[in-house]
């Protein structure tokens, strides 16, 4: 089952979901203004920005790369992402 890590907590999910809606479904909060689940997500207000990254996998083995503490190495996106139109993906880390 695919997993996503939000504020250090692991969550499993099914299907395609937008990050903001998934966070809200878990009872957590991210500030937003222009988002509604029945409408498109224009990401105009920029209030729902979050730090997002993906774990680094070894291309040959498919195993996650680990740091000195045994934790997954995370490649952070270069800029903050709007959670209202970011689709969650397996292994995603969100702060």
Question: How would you portray this structure in words?
Answer:
- This protein starts with a strand and ends with a strand.
- The protein has 95 residues and is mostly beta strands.
- Helices cover 7% and strands 22% of the residues.
- The chain has a single domain, classed as Ubiquitin-like (UB roll).
- Strands 2-1-7-4-5 form a five-stranded mixed sheet, with no helix packed on it. A two-stranded antiparallel sheet has the order 3-6.
- The protein is built from one helix and seven strands; from the N terminus they run ββαβββββ.
* Rg: 14 Å
Shape verdict: elongated
Strand order of the largest sheet: 2-1-7-4-5
Question: What's the domain count?
Answer: 1
Q: Label the structural class.
A: mainly beta
Q: Could you name the ranges where pLDDT drops below 50 across 5 or more consecutive residues?
A: none
Summed over residues and divided by their number, the pLDDT gives a mean of 93
Q: Please tell me the CATH architecture by its name.
A: Roll
The major sheet is characterized as:
5 strands, mixed
Q: What fraction strand? A: 15-25%
Q: How many helices?
A: 1
């Amino acid at each position: 089952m695919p997993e996503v890590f939000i504020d250090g907590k692991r969550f499993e999910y099914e299907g395609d979901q937008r990050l903001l809606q998934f966070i809200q479904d878990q009872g957590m909060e991210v500030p937003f203004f222009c988002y509604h689940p029945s409408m498109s997500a224009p990401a105009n207000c920029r209030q729902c920005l979050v730090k997002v990254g993906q774990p680094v996998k070894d291309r040959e083995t498919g195993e996650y790369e680990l740091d000195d503490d045994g934790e997954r190495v995370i490649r952070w996106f270069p800029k903050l992402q709007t959670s209202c139109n970011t689709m969650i993906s397996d292994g995603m880390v969100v702060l």
